[in-house]
Amino acid sequence: MNRKLIAIVPLLIFVFLCVFLYQGLFANPREIQTGRIGDTMPAFNLPDLMDNNSRWTEQQLKGDVYLLNVWGTWCPTCLVELSYLTKLREQGVKIIGLYYVQGYDADFDGPFDMNALRKEVNDMLARTGNPYQFNILDLHRTLSLDLGVSGAPETFLVDKQGTILLHHTGDINPRVWRAKFAPLMQELN
Hints:
By secondary structure, the protein is an alpha/beta fold. The chain is built from 7 helices and 7 strands; from the N terminus they run H-E-E-H-E-H-E-H-H-E-H-E-E-H. The strands form 2 sheets. The chain has a 5-stranded mixed β-sheet with strand order 5-4-3-6-7. A two-stranded antiparallel sheet has the order 1-2. The N and C termini lie far apart (65 Å).
């Protein structure tokens, strides 16, 4: 009995590895699914990037269909998508920015230069167009982590009840909009 078991275990491991690797051949590496699809937006209370006196919560965003676009001035792909997102805003799509600060750690970096960041954001949006109703600052990446964000750009489609319907990693361009977002937006309107 032991000899049969010793012969079968490596065979089972080999079959398992073959199945696992075979599935990987056909997986789309750009398709990262969040476990949040179908869930409501996580609770947050974060400052407005441009206004020290304003804060935003998930409750304030309910009642509208919107895109939550994770972006940063450091992100070249974000720069590319800003002009298309601006066209979408002109067509009536509500887009909220979630500014993802890269490389900052309060424990090691000390005080954050908010004025320098605001100038950098204003300069970039002046050159490319501003698609955002407003920008939420996620300095400590709390909301980003709750959403499962792995970088920028990433975009979430959220319905009027605050339910996340879609999560896209990468830029929004005409092809992506037509294939992924437009059909859902039509259903929601």
